[in-house]
């Protein structure tokens, strides 16, 4: 800014000087009136020259007006800012001085020996802090290691412990059976053959069938000796009999819109409509390789079935995950309908417990039932019981491969089932 101003001033002076030179040349005789008007600076001789040619001269300068740039006004602001900065710097300086004084004060306790004692205390504290910090680090490492081990144990142990206990029980059974042959007064071979097979416990309906039970009834089974026994309904007629029934629908007398706890424990009337219970289904399927049979009957009296050569329901820890494999039958493989609708290896979901593969909602809530929902279903035997065709949400009993079942128009009538039944039997059972 200052430099610019100086330039303006100097150029004005230069201009004046050049006018002055021009005026000097024409001192005696000013011919060009225009030039005279154009240059307001006048140099004139005053009075008589002294001896030696020293003449008095006079320069007339008109009042000088300099146009300053508009930004010139901001100079004031800049000055103010500089002033403020100065104040800030000086206050910071003071702060620094204060801090320094305080630091000095701290170092100087005022009483007793200055410095040394506190320095020692600080060193002591520092080493204590360092020790604590390294202790913390060690503890964190230990926690990490323990956490890793715990996670492994969680995954491995549940199954391992169960398998271990199972194998122990199997060993004991074998020992008890083999002791039979070592009794001092062995019964004759004939006696053994004529005597009915004595079971202390019956794991499922097939074992009742084996000992000669032929009426479809309720029986008490103990699939796992570590767990208590419970009542089941046995189908002793269908396809050779020996079936343990897990689920039945026939008249809509039982509501299947139930909670996780209900599905866990089972509900309904096992002589009519019911869900046996996920814990029981798990125990039944883990003690033996099981096959699943599903029987369906529509309101036109059409009866079809689906048979799965592999059927397993995991424990609650694994959210009762379903496994079905090797389909056979007439109703179609609706449980493994397609790549996008597949109930195999899916967790159990209830209206109050979302374990399904549908990200923006709960299939159990939407379809009013507990089931191994995917996102959401190609089959659901726990849907609402409709006594005839229905409209709206497809929340009825559903089997996607049923003839004509999936062809219903959106908003049109949907068909349901009159009867549905799920039952299991050991894979190697021979009726
Ligand atoms: Ca969901």
UniProtKB/TrEMBL annotation:
GO terms for cellular component: fibrinogen complex. Homotetramer; disulfide-linked. It is found in: Secreted. Residues 1-23 form the signal peptide. GO terms for molecular function: extracellular matrix structural constituent; protein-macromolecule adaptor activity. Residues 122-156 form a coiled coil. Residues 100-110 have a biased composition (Basic and acidic residues). This is Fibroleukin. Residues 100-122 are annotated as: Disordered. Keywords: Coiled coil, Disulfide bond, Glycoprotein, Secreted, Signal. GO terms for biological process: blood coagulation, common pathway; fibrinolysis; negative regulation of defense response to virus; negative regulation of dendritic cell antigen processing and presentation; negative regulation of macrophage antigen processing and presentation; negative regulation of memory T cell differentiation; platelet aggregation; positive regulation of heterotypic cell-cell adhesion. Residues 196-428 form the Fibrinogen C-terminal domain. InterPro entries: FIB_ANG-like, Fibrinogen-like_C, Fibrinogen_a/b/g_C_1, Fibrinogen_a/b/g_C_dom, Fibrinogen_CS. Gene3D superfamilies: Gamma Fibrinogen, chain A, domain 1. The gene is FGL2. Its main location: secreted. It comes from the Eukaryota.
């Amino acid at each position: 800014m200052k430099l610019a101003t100086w330039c303006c001033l100097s150029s004005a002076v230069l201009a004046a000087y050049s006018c002055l030179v021009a005026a000097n040349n024409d001192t005696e005789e000013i011919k060009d009136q225009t030039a005279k008007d154009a240059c307001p600076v006048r140099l004139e001789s005053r009075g008589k020259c002294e001896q030696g040619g020293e003449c008095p001269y006079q320069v007339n300068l008109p009042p000088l007006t300099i146009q300053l740039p508009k930004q010139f006004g901001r100079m004031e602001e800049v000055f103010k800012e500089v002033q403020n900065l100065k104040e800030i710097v000086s206050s910071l300086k003071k702060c620094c001085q204060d801090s320094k004084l305080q630091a000095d004060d701290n170092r100087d306790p005022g009483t007793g020996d200055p410095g040394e004692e506190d320095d020692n205390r600080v060193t002591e504290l520092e080493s204590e802090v360092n020790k604590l910090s390294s202790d913390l680090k060690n503890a964190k490492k230990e926690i990490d290691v323990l956490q890793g081990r715990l996670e492994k144990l969680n995954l491995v142990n549940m199954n391992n412990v169960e398998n271990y206990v199972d194998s122990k029980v199997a060993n004991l059974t074998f020992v008890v059976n083999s002791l039979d042959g070592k009794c001092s007064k062995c019964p004759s071979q004939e006696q053994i053959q004529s005597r009915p097979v004595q079971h202390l416990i019956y794991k499922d309906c097939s074992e009742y069938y084996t000992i000669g039970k032929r009426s479809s009834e309720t029986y008490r089974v103990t699939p796992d000796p570590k767990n208590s026994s419970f009542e089941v309904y046995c189908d002793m007629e269908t396809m050779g009999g020996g079936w343990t029934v897990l689920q039945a629908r026939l008249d809509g007398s039982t509501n299947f819109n139930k909670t996780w706890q209900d599905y866990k424990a089972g509900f309904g009337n096992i002589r009519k409509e019911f869900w046996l219970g996920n814990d029981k289904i798990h125990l039944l399927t883990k003690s033996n390789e099981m096959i699943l049979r599903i029987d369906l009957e529509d309101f036109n009296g059409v009866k079809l079935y689906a048979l799965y050569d592999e059927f397993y329901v995991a424990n609650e820890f694994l959210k009762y995950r379903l496994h079905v494999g090797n389909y056979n039958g007439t109703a179609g493989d609706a449980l493994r309908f397609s790549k996008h609708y597949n109930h195999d290896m899916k967790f159990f979901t209830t209206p109050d417990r979302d374990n399904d593969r549908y990200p923006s909602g709960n299939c159990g809530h939407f379809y009013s039932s507990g089931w191994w929902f995917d996102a959401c279903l190609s089959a659901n035997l726990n849907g609402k019981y409709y006594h005839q065709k229905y409209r709206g949400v497809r929340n009825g009993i559903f089997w996607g491969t049923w003839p004509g079942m999936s062809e219903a128009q959106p908003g049109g009538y949907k068909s349901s089932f009159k009867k549905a039944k799920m039952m299991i039997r050991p894979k190697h059972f021979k009726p």
